[in-house]
Amino acid sequence: MKILDLFNLTGEQRAKLESLGEVQVIEPAELNDNNIKNINGIYGWNKKAQNVLGQSTELKFVQSNSAGVDYMPLSDFADKGITLTNVSGIHAEPISEMVVAYVLAFARGIVTSQAARRDQKWIGDQVRMQNYTIKNRTAVIFGTGHIGRAIAEKLQAFGTRTVGVSRHGKPVAHFDQVVGDQKGVLQAAKADFVINIMPLTPTTRYFFNQAFFDQMTNQPIFINVGRGPSVDTKALIAALDQHQLAGAGLDVFESEPLPSDSPLWGMENVILTPHISGGFQEYGDEAFAILYQNIASFIQTGEAAINKVDLSAGY
Amino acid sequence: MKILDLFNLTGEQRAKLESLGEVQVIEPAELNDNNIKNINGIYGWNKKAQNVLGQSTELKFVQSNSAGVDYMPLSDFADKGITLTNVSGIHAEPISEMVVAYVLAFARGIVTSQAARRDQKWIGDQVRMQNYTIKNRTAVIFGTGHIGRAIAEKLQAFGTRTVGVSRHGKPVAHFDQVVGDQKGVLQAAKADFVINIMPLTPTTRYFFNQAFFDQMTNQPIFINVGRGPSVDTKALIAALDQHQLAGAGLDVFESEPLPSDSPLWGMENVILTPHISGGFQEYGDEAFAILYQNIASFIQTGEAAINKVDLSAGY
């Protein structure tokens, strides 16, 4: 198997793959007009991969280095019978920690204090009694997969009430309650925290739009660690300006990097981070473990072992 | 019993106290040269209370509205046989949440991202792989009382290793390990997070000084939600400048409000909040519940029921 490496495998990882016997790892610099036709697998995705997709007659396997795969040509994969696997699972820990970080930064007055700090304002008397604990508060989490569950589990450790929203609406561990989409909006309307971790699909694009924000009656904090285009940014900014939302913690945006003229940069009731919530120091190791398992399986059985993406569903 | 209210009891709370039968609540504006001599109890502490201490011949009970009582004339209380009770216990939830907020803001790259945000810098590629999760990291917590235990419990929910430091060094729930002061410094040297929640006593004053910071070998994040004077501020600033510490989350300071010429205001690797970590919206209710229980007990038995302060130990 010829595997094109677009995610910077270490020498050790490369050797480990090649020790499987039938694997040859090809680095981007080694790609040429000849070997491009016989690439069997790709690790990662970029323009070079797109090239390989057009020219290789033997491509049968793509392993993404992300959980979301909305940026990939899924229908081409389906047409050509290419198996796509992702690294879903490894983001649960870092993203759930990020969500708790946002939630507590708002609840405990850190956002307000840091804003006042720019003018050296000591606003203890004002903030101290506005602060709240997240015990007995309600978080509505859109998305009940790996990451949604991990978020719910961590929030439950603080005594926060957790409501999950999914298409199926069936019970899931660590959620006090799981409801379908429509009921989810009603729950969000009364919630303290509204958290998006849904994949981007035609159904979820612009899910959080003006009609959604207009229903919020409890001035929740809105958190997006899913995908940027699930949110209508203009509607979000208006909802923040009009205090339909008390604040927002945003890691993903419709357009990234966030354009320099975006009002979000300057909004004091917004924490914004540059699409980092899923990152952590051991990311490369954990992603490699999935790649290795899938390639080993491919060699033995002709099938990937884990994390297969349903190309029609998009996740 | 004549109780001077220095913590703004609500009408409802006042009525509830007076329904005990022998209680008369006196508001600060009602204090005069006559009734000051017969005040039996004080709720809260300020200069007016100091006056009452000098002039009342019948003062026997002071209920603080804080957990720490280092700002009170403890030896005068001891000399005059005055019982002091605090509201220890009600801060465990809000302060432990604040500590997790600081810890995660550093671990997950929020501090770095917000600093870059001022210049509209999108530093995702840089931050994403510097980030870490707090799973399997080590937090050394100085102080294993109510609040220390609550901090440990919450961190354990993230898989963080928790080491407590106390005078006794005996096992305490939610700590993977508890050690005495000297071993605590050695543990802190290797830790990822060093957290102070000790009361301020002659022993803990300037506990975190240059000698302490000089021993740190793992560039920990230092968090102070205890008392400001437990830290030598100049040594702390130097340790941050010299990267002996990777950052600091500070809610309390040697001098409050933080002086306008303090370098801490402008340090990007510092989160500073204006002594708010113990505050939350239901604070008044929870503190009153302790006051009520103690006054009811005083009427029945002549003794406070809960939260008595050891005047010689200072907490």
TrEMBL record, chains A, B:
SUPFAM superfamilies: Formate/glycerate dehydrogenase catalytic domain-like, NAD(P)-binding Rossmann-fold domains. It comes from the Bacteria. GO terms for molecular function: NAD binding; oxidoreductase activity, acting on the CH-OH group of donors, NAD or NADP as acceptor. This is D-3-phosphoglycerate dehydrogenase. Keywords: NAD, Oxidoreductase. Pfam families: 2-Hacid_dh, 2-Hacid_dh_C. It comes from Lentilactobacillus parakefiri. Residues 100-277 form the D-isomer specific 2-hydroxyacid dehydrogenase NAD-binding domain. PANTHER family: 2-HACID_DH_C DOMAIN-CONTAINING PROTEIN, D-ISOMER SPECIFIC 2-HYDROXYACID DEHYDROGENASE NAD-BINDING DOMAIN-CONTAINING PROTEIN. Belongs to the D-isomer specific 2-hydroxyacid dehydrogenase family. Residues 22-303 form the D-isomer specific 2-hydroxyacid dehydrogenase catalytic domain. The keyword Cytoplasm does not apply.
